[in-house]
# Entry
Amino acid sequence: MPKKKVSIKPGPMLYPLPAVMVTVGDMEENNIITIAWTGIINTSPPMTYISVKKSRHSHDILSRSREFVINLTTEKTVKATDYVGVKSGRDVDKFKEMSLTPIKADIVKAPMIEEAPINLECKVFEIKELPSHDMFLAEIVAVHIDEDLIDEKGKYCFEDAGLIAFNHGSYYKLSNRKIGGFGYSIMKNKTKKKLAKK
Amino acid sequence: MPKKKVSIKPGPMLYPLPAVMVTVGDMEENNIITIAWTGIINTSPPMTYISVKKSRHSHDILSRSREFVINLTTEKTVKATDYVGVKSGRDVDKFKEMSLTPIKADIVKAPMIEEAPINLECKVFEIKELPSHDMFLAEIVAVHIDEDLIDEKGKYCFEDAGLIAFNHGSYYKLSNRKIGGFGYSIMKNKTKKKLAKK
# Structure
């Protein structure tokens, strides 16, 4: 029997999304903003974007500096993730309020958040005006990950980072259980067994 | 003690991401492609994008039709999600191979996937060339959701859809347990109690 579908008012209903903490400014004057309107736009070189409302405090800083850091978020930083998304940097020092530690990035002036397991340094190459938000298109110029997410063979274990996702207004952990790896649907049983042994 | 961070080769390491099935073409000639390079770029009106390699079969179709449907993916469709991402529509009929059902959309010609709990009809307003991928920027012009995801009060229960996320090459379910709702970090205890009763 076909499933009954209901047509609802069009909205930005693409889920799950990342909910990342984006840092802007420099080591002295900075701000953190929570962004779910982000994604990868190009693989090689790696490029991303963030969409930010013109009215946001970070919009001014971004327009001048054209640099930012994407800090991935986890269960441990979920309260901070929510807080920096609802408070304005005009009123509070978000690093201080949420006990987050700014550390120096390699290339950009914006600080990285030490408590985030993965940090992406980004340099803006274009600002695209859209009706309610401006898109900051950027190249990912440096990536830092926690040492304990690299196993003895040099493999990156992002699945151990405890990353969270945003789904229709709420934050969720990813389940620990992997359902499948890229390409598993056409993999021969022999290959699957070999991979399982690794 | 500060955490030890390691600088690694820059890559598209933004996680978790959605892994959606994008449908292109029309009810007669169509294709499905898996896309993780997608996101929301504007809230009002709702706008999204997908980044697609020029060499992909769907790139040709998209460039001509300038329309597509984003079909959200779940644990039930994870095998299909993987399969349509690794096989080419030049070689196989992906709807048939994966037993997916094409149904007519309201506005665009591209079919929707019945087995997806949420379908977003999209109309392209710009194609932006980037080094390895082309971005198809689009407005979300219609949204359809399964009737059983709307509760008796009319609330959309996206958390019941069983959505999956893509994290560094693998697919994961979202945990059933919500960690927090938007704004919870600054909510008064009284408000929290009131909401819990609802």
